[in-house]
């Protein structure tokens, strides 16, 4: 009795094993198709490049690997290079279905809006991410993909600080955040990159750029305020705000007279 039960179990196990080892390659490329269909639907394509090249009707084996900007490795979508195609709209959707995606290049388009906060979950294995020369705005998401070797996000409208967890991007060999609206201290592990990687951001300071003491006063105050808001310091900040506000108003009275931007924050903290 138990011998048959054991045999049945074994057979079931074999069956499971065989189905699970044969189905991924099939469903995996179907996932890639879902990925590309969703990407195509979610972006604005004024030049009709995806419209004409990304044709999902011809379903020959590995057909998606012939699409403009799609690079495969063993029939899996390995890289998506949509650079300079005149694309518009928000950050493309559906990338979470491209489960073998290692490189993503959206550079030189007109994409706008935020970089998704969960980009690390959407594209978990990225080693190369190029979003440069677009109009992405908002803050750089925290917990950006850990395995990145290349990160190019220069020439956008990104604001806020460089997240401190950039210190954990140990494999980074190429980085540019130049020409954005970033401010605050550059995470220490990034000081090995050239100053040109950070240029064009009025409020960034610390190596390889200049000393924070020499940065523009208004940027520095922004940095302090942003830090307090981010660390949920609003309550404690009410007290600290008095001190900061008092000191700042004492030393830089012109900021409070001329900087419209500061008024709501000063009001909020004090
Ligand atoms: C399907 O795509 C393949 C590869 O691009 C091409 O050789 C073939 O002619 C296409 N078939 C049709 C019916 O469009
Ligand atoms: C994407 O293609 C452009 C040329 O169209 C090339 O310059 C760039 O290096 C490519 N990006 C990647 C990540 O291969
Ligand atoms: C500081 O920044 C303001 C605008 O943000 C600018 O007008 C001013 O010239 C800057 N000052 C210095 C010393 O760079």
From TrEMBL:
Signal sequence bounds: 1-22
Keywords: Membrane, Repeat, Signal, Transmembrane, Transmembrane helix
Transmembrane segments: 233-252
Protein name from the UniProt record: Leucine-rich repeat-containing N-terminal plant-type domain-containing protein
InterPro entries named among the record's database cross-references: Leu-rich_rpt (IPR001611), LRR_dom_sf (IPR032675)
Annotated source species: Panicum virgatum (Blackwell switchgrass)
Gene Ontology terms: cellular component: membrane
Localization in the cell: Membrane
């Amino acid at each position: 009795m138990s011998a048959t039960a054991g045999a049945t179990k074994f057979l079931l196990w074999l069956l499971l094993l065989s189905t699970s080892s044969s189905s991924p390659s099939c469903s995996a490329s179907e996932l890639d198709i879902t990925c590309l269909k969703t990407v195509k639907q979610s972006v604005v394509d004024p030049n009709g490049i995806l419209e004409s090249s990304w044709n999902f009707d011809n379903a020959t084996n590995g057909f998606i690997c012939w699409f403009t900007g799609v690079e495969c490795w063993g029939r899996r979508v390995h890289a998506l290079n949509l650079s300079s195609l005149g694309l518009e709209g928000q950050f493309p959707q559906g990338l979470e279905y491209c489960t073998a995606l290692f490189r993503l290049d959206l550079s030189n388009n007109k994409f706008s809006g935020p970089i998704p906060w969960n980009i690390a979950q959407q594209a978990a294995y990225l080693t190369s991410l190029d979003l440069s020369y677009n109009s992405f705005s908002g803050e750089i998401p925290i917990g950006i993909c850990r395995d990145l070797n290349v990160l190019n996000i220069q020439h956008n409208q990104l604001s806020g600080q460089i997240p401190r967890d950039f210190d954990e991007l140990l494999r980074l060999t190429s980085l540019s955040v130049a020409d954005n609206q970033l401010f605050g201290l550059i995470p220490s592990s990034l000081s090995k990159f050239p100053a040109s990687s950070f240029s064009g951001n009025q409020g960034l300071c610390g190596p390889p750029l200049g000393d924070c003491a020499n940065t523009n006063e208004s940027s520095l105050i922004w940095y302090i305020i942003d830090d307090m808001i981010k660390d949920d310091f609003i309550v404690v900040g009410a007290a600290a705000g008095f001190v900061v506000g008092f000191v700042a108003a004492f030393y830089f009275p012109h900021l409070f007279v001329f900087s419209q931007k500061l008024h709501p924050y000063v009001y909020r903290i004090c």
